Amino acid sequence: MEKITAVKGMQDIFQPEVRLWQHIEALIRSEMETFAYREIRTPVLEKTELFVRGVGGGTDIVKKEMYTFSDKGDRSVTMRPEGTASVVRAVNEHGLLNAGEPVSKYYYIGPMFRYERPQKGRLRQFHQFGVECFGSDSPFVDAEVIQILYNILTKLKLSDISVKLNSIGCPECRPVFRQNAEKYFGAVKDKLCVECNERINTNPLRIYDCKTPSCKENITGAPVILDHLCEGCSQHFESVKRALAQIGVPFVIDARLVRGLDYYTRTAFEVTSKHLGAQDALGGGGRYDDLVSELGGQKTPAIGFGMGIERVVIAVKTQNIDLGLGSGLRAYVVPLSRNEAEYAFKLLDILRKADISAQMAVSEKKTGVHFKDAEKAGADFAVIIGEDEIKNGTLTVKDLRKRSQQSVSEAELAAYIKNN
RNA sequence: GCGAAUGUAGCUCAGUGGUUAGAGUACCAGAUUGUGGAUCUGGGCGUCGCGGGUUCAAAUCCCGUCAUUCGCCCCA
What we know:
By secondary structure, the protein is of the alpha+beta class. Helix content is about 35%, strand content about 20%.
């Protein structure tokens, strides 16, 4: 029989790593609580049209990376490649932005799908934590959103992360920049790579982060978007910088930072880590003041980001960060022979009813092996019941970390374990 | 979509034409018949990714295929 394996680019997450996932998720939820964001859960499957219009028909995501297929009613559907479009759709569909709230703040955690060639930190099914804040164009909201991402990564004890910040302007100032850029790059056209030559007309911003050496050389001296910001965008950008400085979020200006999705305006940011591979962004996002209206809602300013959970996991693991995540198992109950098994099962129940995570040895083994098993299971204590214990009416509780043991009565057992 | 590397024991890997394919580690048993991070002794472990070809003989060479990994691209 041929073994059935997981689909390419999709992976199983299990112990001990799943512990880290749970920790990250719990941290996200508590952080969202303090920042007053509420969870939103949207379907994994959406009408294809949503992403074509939302993400942008010109992006690689839409052009070649979507899991798109026809359902039995011959409707084209797509497994979501990112979260923002879905949230905007949901929010429009249910009129959530008309509920009278000053701002509507949502977050989500869930799987995303992109049909790409897998490599380190890049999968076909990956998980994103994302935040979307609707209804305000205040720079404080930009700062708040960036702070959320920064806080979470910092609370995971990640070092060597850097927050990159840029403004890519708005529909008002971008055309001017575009003209200048086209003029500049047009002049040095033959020194740029093939792809960049295409970018001159399609998306000149992308030339700025091209890695081809000859392109890099010719970028020096090229017009920079930051010099072309209109009065409004410029002031906004300055305010965001001041707000970040005020709350102690360190950042660097990266005039070459561009985001791959079409919908961004003004603020663009990204957090990178040195501990990943070529895919070094842990998360990124920006402002999208026109997306809500482009998807049929009222004109609503908004900003958000997405964070790749797999990448955060990689970063935490390669930095060997100790987050103090144990197995969670406290007690391992060991009946030394069949004669004590029933009593052991009763003890197990006592512990569990006291909300103590407990497990019981179910096969007869040498005592030494039981201790090994208990350690392997990650238990803090082994509770031994043998002939002697039955005779004396006590239990032997061994602290596997301290390697010490003590006689404890049945009545004291739960309290003893809780207190040690 | 393009480029490169790698697929041998649960894990990490050695073995580049010649008997029954090895090591470390992990596992199991015992030394230690009720006490786990040490030592020693013994033990099991394999469709050598899959399919085909060359050869007296293939884990080893050739072709194909699949998978994984890393990079390009792109992005989380």
